[in-house]
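re the bet — no i am not wrong, look at it urself. input seq straight from the record:
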Amino acid sequence: MTMTNKKRKAGRQGHAPRSAFQIHPVAAACSALVLTTGAAYAQSEPAKADKAAEDQVQTVTVTGIRKGIEAAIAIKKNADAIVEAVSAEDIGKLPDLSVAESISRLPGVTTQRSTVTGRAQQISVRGMAPDFNGGLLNGREQASTGSSRSVEFDQYPAELLGSIVIYKTPDASLMGQGLSSTTDMQTVRPLNFGERAVVVNYRHESTSKAENKPGFGTGSGDRLSLSYIDQFADRKLGIALGYTHQENKGGGRPNFNTWGGWVPLYDTATNTTSACNKPDGAPDSWTPPGTCAKVPGGFTTDIETTDFKRDAALAVLQFKPSKEFESTLDVLYSKGNFSVMKRGLEGPVGGLSAGANDQGGRLVDATISNGVVTAGSFENWKGVIRNHNEDYSDELTSIGWGNTFKAGDWKLNFDLSHSKVKKVSERFETTAGIAGNAYNAEDTISWTGFNGSNLADVKYSTGLNYADPNLIKLTDVQGWAGANGVQDGYYANPTTTDKIDALKFALGREISWGPIVSFNGGLNISSRTKDRVTREGALVLPGALDANGNVVDRLVFADMPNPTVGVGGLTGIPTLNWNPSGSLGSVFQLNPWSDHDIVGKTWGVKENVSTVFLKGDIESEIGGIALRGNVGVQLVGTRQSATGFRVDQASCNGGTHSCDYSAVSASHSFTDVLPSLNLAADLGGDNVLRLGLGRLIARPNMEDMKATVDFSVKSDDGPSYFNGSGGNPNLEPFRANALDLSYEKYFGKKGYVSIAGFYKDLDTYILKTREVFDFASYVTPGSGTPDSGTLGLITLPTNGKGGTISGVELSVNVPFSMVSSWLDGFGVMANYSNTDSSVKLPSSGFSGQNVNTPSIPLPGLSKEVTNLRLYFEKYGLQLAVARRERSSYLGSISDYQDKTQLVYVKGEAQVDVQAAYEFDWGFLKGFSILAQGNNLTNAEYAEYDAQNGNITNRKKFGKSFLVGVNYKF
C-alpha cells in the first residue's frame, strides 16, 4: 500500500509549506513496514478478536475479580493496537466506585482528584494533561462540561459500563482520538449474554472526619443500581436496561490557603513593610535592614461541606434478525446536582492593606528568632467571615444508533450519534464582619508557632468575638470594589453547553492484496458547538445603590438571616454563619458587572470536522513469525469559527463596573493527514512484540479559541501601557509523531507481564506567549491612550514548537498459583511508569496561583506513577488491597473566578481495601455482600510554591467506608 498520493496542505501556521507530493516521515515509515511484511507474505486465516466475538454468544458463568482480570487480558492480548483494559467483574460491577478510579490502576494512567470531593475525576495518560486524552462512549466522541474537551468521567456511573479500553496507539477507523490516548467506555450488548440477568446493587457509604477538630463532621451516602438484560424472538432481539441513583452528604473538609505562600518582610523598627523593599536603582548587593523580619502574609481557611445527587439511566436495544443485518440503539442519560458550602475566615496579617476599607495593621508583642516573628499580634485587623455557596447541575445525554449490513463479501456500517452536556452553575460569595467602620477595626490578630515557612500550621486567635450577631453584620468589610464602589458579596451564574452530532459511514470487505487481508474505509462527519454564557456581578444590600447604580452608602450593613455559630476553618475561631442560597432578591440585589474581564468569559466555538479514513488489516509472516495488525490513514478537514466580545474601553465606569461591548467573530480552516500502523508479532509461547507508529493530534482547549481580546491599562510603577489577553480563533491542534514498542508475555488467559516504551515528538504545541501587540483596532476613537500609545503587551495562545515526551511502563498481572498450588486464589496486579519530557513552557503566558518560575514543565506530568493491587479469591471470598501513587505535578484547576489556573500539586498516595463474599448455594445463591475502605491514609491534597516549597493550599477529605449487597437472578 502506498501513501504518496496523500496530499498535505501547505502553508499551515508555524510550518513551512510542503510540496503536494511530499511524503510525511510517519507515512513513509508505515508504508515501508507494510511493504516489508508483504515481501514475506503468507496467506493465513484472520484471527481478529472483534470478528470472533461478533457471532459468539457469551455465557457469564464465572464472576469476581479473576473474571474481570481474564476478560481484560483477553481484550489486551487480542487487540491489534497497544491497549489497556478494565472489564466488569460481573454485570454492573467494575472494580471501583467510579470510572476514573478503575482507569487509574492501568499502566501509565493516573488521575487528578477533585479539589472539592477528593475523588478521582479526570485522567492523565503518559504524563500528559487530561485534554490530550480522547473520551468516547461505544466508540463515539463525548461532549464535556468544562471549557476544555476533557471528559469528566464521574458523569458516567461505573455500574452501567461493561468495559473500558484505552488505546495507546492510533487506529485509523477510530474517531475522536487523543494525542496521549483514547479512552473508550463500552456498555453491554444484551445478545452477547446467554440468558436473562437481573441485578440489584445497594451500597451505603460513610466518611470519617477529615480532621479531629471542631466543625468537622462525618459524611454519608447511598448508591442503588438496577440492571436488566434479556433476549426475545429466538435471540433476535436483546434489551439491556440500567438505572443508578447515588447521593452523598460530605462531612466538613478543611481548606487552608496561604495566599500563594506569601511571607512578607516587616520592619519592626518603623512598623512598615516599605523599608524592607529594595529601592529603585539599588545595587544587586542590597540587603534589607536587620530590623526586617518574616511575618505571615494572610490566610483563607474554610470548612467545606458537600451535597451531591446523581441519577443515570441506560437503555440498549439490539436487533439481529440474521447474520446479514444488525442494528443497535443505545441511550445514556445522566443528571447530577452538586453543592459545596464554604464557611470560614480570611484576612491579611502582614501589615498591608487588603482593600479600600483597610489601612493595614501595626505589629505589637513580637517574638523574633533568626529573622522570623515566631509569635506576635497585629493591631487594626479586619477579618472577613466567608459564607459561600457553589452549586451546579449537569445534564448529559448520549445517543448512538449503529447499523451493520452484509451483502456477499461486502460489509456496510452506518452510525448516527448525539452527545450533549449542559452545566449550570450558581455561586454566592458573601462577606461579613465589623460593620460601619471604614478604617479602625479595633481588633487584633495574633499567632504562634511560625517558623518562616509553615504557613498552614500557624495557630491564630483574635481579640473580638466573630460569632456575636450584635457585632458581626453582612457588609463590605474590606472595600474590595474600591473607594468608588460597593461589594457586599459576589454572584456568578455561568452556563456551559456542549453538543456533538456525528454521522459515520464505512464500507469494507476481505481482500487478498499482499499482507492486506481486508480493508475498511469511509467518511465521518461531525459538528460540535460549545457555548459559555455568564451573568455575574456584585451583591449589594438595599440602600447601597440608587436606581442608576450609583453608590449611595458603600458601608451599609444588615443582619444575617437565621445565623448559626460555626468556626473559621482551621483557625477554630468561632464565627457567625448563614446559608446564602436563594438570597438574591430577598437579601441582596445584583449589580451586574460588564468589565472587560467579565465580558471575556462569554464566548462560543463551532467546529465542523470531515474525516475520510482507510484502514487495511494485516495478516502476514516473516521468517516463520506470524504478524497481524493494521495500517491506515485519516484525512481530516476542519472548519472552525469562534465568537466573543469587544469592550468599548471609553465607556467603562470603574465605580459601577459597567462597559459597552459588541460581538466579534472569526473563522479558520485547515487539513491534517494522520497515518498509522500497528503490528503484533507472535514470537511463540504466548510472547508478543508490538510496534505502533502514527501521527496524532489533540485539538485546543475551546476557551483558547474564543474571539475575545480583553485588555486594560497597566503601569507597573512606570509608564502606562495596554496589557491584554484573549483567545485565538486561528489555533490549530497540537500535533505529534509517535513511536511505541511493547513486549508482552502471556500465561494463557490467566496473566501476563509486559514492558512498553514510547516516544512522542510534539512538533506543534500550543504556547501562551506574551508579545508586543498594536491595540489600535480595539481602541475606541477619542477614548485616549496610555503613555505607550496603542502599542502594548498581549498574552495569546499560538501554535509553536513543543518538545519530546518519552517513557517506559512495566506491568505484572499474574496469579500466584503459577508459583505453587498452595497459593491458588492469590494474585497481584502491579505497574510502574516513568515519564520524562523536554517540554518547557514560558510561565508568563499562563494563569497560575503558584507559577512564579521563568518556565514551567508539561502540565499533568508526574514523572513516576505506581499501582499495586494484591488480591485473594476462592470459595466465594474476595479480598483485595490496592495502593496508587503519583509524584508531584503541575495540575490544572478552576479557581474562584471560574478561570483555569495552573498549580503545583504535591505527590500523593492512596490505599484502598475491599472484601466480598458471594453465596453459591441454597436460597442465597446469587447474593453477595461487600465492604470497602477508600483513602485509608487520609491522603492530603496539597498545592505548593515551586520556588520555596511552601504549602499554599491544603485539603484533607477523610477516609470513606462502604458496605453493600448485590443480588443477581
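see?? The domain at 25-186+495-533+593-968 is CATH 2.40.170 (Maltoporin; Chain A). told u. also The longest helix spans residues 25-39. so pay up
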